[in-house]
Amino acid sequence: MMEEATYEMCWDCKFCGQKKLLGLTHRFCAGCGAPQDPASRYFPPENEKVAVKDNPFVGADVSCPACKQPMSRAAKCCTNCGSPIDKGAEVARRTGVHRVHLSRSFTAVYGQAPSLFRLRCMTARAIRNVVCDGSSLADAAANAGFADQSHFTRAFAREVGTLPSRLRHRFNSLHSFKTLDHAAG
Ligand SMILES: [Zn+2]
Ligand SMILES: [Zn+2]
Hints:
Blueprint: E1 10-11, E2 21-22, E3 62-63, E4 70-71, H1 87-95, H2 99-110, H3 114-131, H4 137-144, H5 149-160, H6 164-184
Helix pairs in contact: 3-4, 3-5, 4-5
Bound molecules: zinc ion (ZN) (2 copies).
One zinc ion binds near residues 69 and 81.
């Protein structure tokens, strides 16, 4: 006998715009931690139904530091209690070092907070994908671990001072210029 997939009603977060959170499983928004408004639950149309096990915020990659609920890496906030899922706390737990100590030592050595360092690594990775591999911005953002393309674009603009699409354009024109130069020489 085939196992029946389980479905739940959905709700959208009116604070951060996160869509299709699960009515029963997600009591808090995975994006911003806001509590669910049960009155806003709805049945998604048949063709947009997603089985509970396939929901992006259902998983056991990390555990909530506050309530220990297993959570998907994609969740920024615990869907059971609304606490932020602090990736730093997860690293501290694994290394057995207090997270404040970890953060201070890291900052002393690298001159930047671990969260900023992580964001910069992700940005660098996405740039390489866009410029060298010709990935689309959405793919590069997802590959590098950004929540979505706009998260990547904002982080990029803050670090680099331009838009990812502009940077790609510049690299492309530089490349064709070099090719021309080479052909002429
Ligand atoms: Zn939200
Ligand atoms: Zn929790």
